Every structure is written in C-alpha cells, then in structure tokens.
Amino acid sequence: MRHGKKINHLGRTDTHRKAMLANMASSLILHKRITTTLAKAKALRQYVEPLITKSKSDTTHSRRTVFSYLKDKEAVTILFREIAEKVATRPGGYTRILKLANRLGDNAEMSIIELVDYNTTFTQGAEAGAAKKKSRRGGAASKAKVADAPVVAKEVVETAPVTEEVAEEAPVVEEVVESTPVVEEVAETPVAEATEEAPAADAAEKAPEEPAAE
Predict the structure, then answer these.
(1) Pick from 71, 67, 72, 40: nearest CA to 54
(2) Residue 4 Cα distances to 1, 7, 208, angstroms
(3) Phi then psi for 113, rounded to 5 degrees?
(4) pTM > 0.90: yes or no
C-alpha cells in the first residue's frame, strides 16, 4: 500500500527518475509540447512548474537553482528570456495535460503535456469567447433601440400629411396653363382684320385705272 506517499517513483530509482524528469522538462521548454504517458506527465507537471515560477525573478541565484534541476544551458536561457515574459502575469497553472488514446503495445494511458500560453488554438478560442460575451452585453442596448423604433415611425407618419397639402396646391399650375388660350385669341384677331382689309386695298388700286382709260 502507498498510503500518504505522494511521489510516483515510476518504476525507477531515484537518480534515474530525476534524470528522466530533467530531460523531459528541458524538452518541454524547448518544444513547448511533448507526448508521454499520463503518469509521467503528472510527475513532470509537479517538477517543471516550480522552475517556471522561479524564472520570473531573473537573478543569478535563480538561474543557478534552475540549472541544477535542468542540466541544460539552452533550456535555461529560453526559460528566462522567452517563457518568463510570456507567463509573467499568470499566477500558476503553466502547463496543460490532454489525454489521448491508450498505447497499442501495452495499453498505457497516453497524454500530451504543453505550455498553456503557447497553444494558439485554445488562446484564440478564449478570445472569441470574450468577444461573444461583449456582444451579449450590447444586446440589451440593441433591444432598447428596437423598443424606441415604433415611436420614431409614428412621428414620421404624422408628418406625412404635410406633403399631401403641398400636393393639393398643385392645381394652381393647371390654372396658369388654362390661361394660355387667351394668347391664342389675341393672335387670331389681327389675322382676321388683315384678311378683311386686303380686298379694300385691291379695290383702291383698281379705281384710278378707269379714269385714265377715258
């Protein structure tokens, strides 16, 4: 029985277990995601998260302490330069474990352990969720606008008869058009008088010719 025993020895000696976890932690820092068994992933999470918290204070003492666990200069450099800036505002929970299908050979439980801030799929989903919440908050304002819409429509309908009154004044233009025949009558009267005077002028021209013949 393992009552009260929190450390999973993983079927290895103490030195072998520490070397394996140091190697896995360095791989996780370099590649941001690794695939391993579920038991090893849970043990690695307890091993690497205190080191990430230690990297938030970039001092010589912190670097030497982390190097004593990782035994890899490149992993220590990346941890203090890149990852520490990425997780500066996160109070904990730097890793995520995702379960996979069991391994075919021995049916062992498999999983993926990754750094939370480097998974673009989950971070984009969180941003989309935040955007949806913002749109839901604005829904109340849109409902209020819809409720106010009928009032505006009534005001527009009430002002519509004003345009009808303007349309009733249009016959004044028709009356002006009807007065145009007066111009035609004035034009016709001089033509009639001119035709009536034309025979008189011809008679005056013919009258002087008769005495000349006598």
Answers:
(1) 67
(2) 9, 9, 159
(3) -115, 130
(4) no
CA distance 139 to 35: 43
pLDDT tens-digit readout, 92-124: 999 999 999 999 999 999 999 999 999 887 666
**Cα separation, 171 vs 168, whole angstroms:** 7
Tokens matching residue 50: 């205190």
Looking at the DSSP assignment, which residues form a beta bridge with residue 99? 111
CA of 95: how far to CAs of 44, 52, 185, in Å?
10, 10, 104
Tokens for 122?
């989950």
Task: Give every CB contact of residue 184 below 8 A, 6+ residues apart in sequence.
Answer: none
Cα–Cα distance for residue pair 55/80, rounded to 1 Å: 5
Mean pLDDT, the chain, integer:
76
**CA 114/CA 94 separation, integer angstroms:** 8
Domains of the chain, earliest start first:
14-131 (3.90.1030.10)
Angle (nearest 5°) at CA 70 between 68 and 74: 115
Tokens of 191: 């033509």
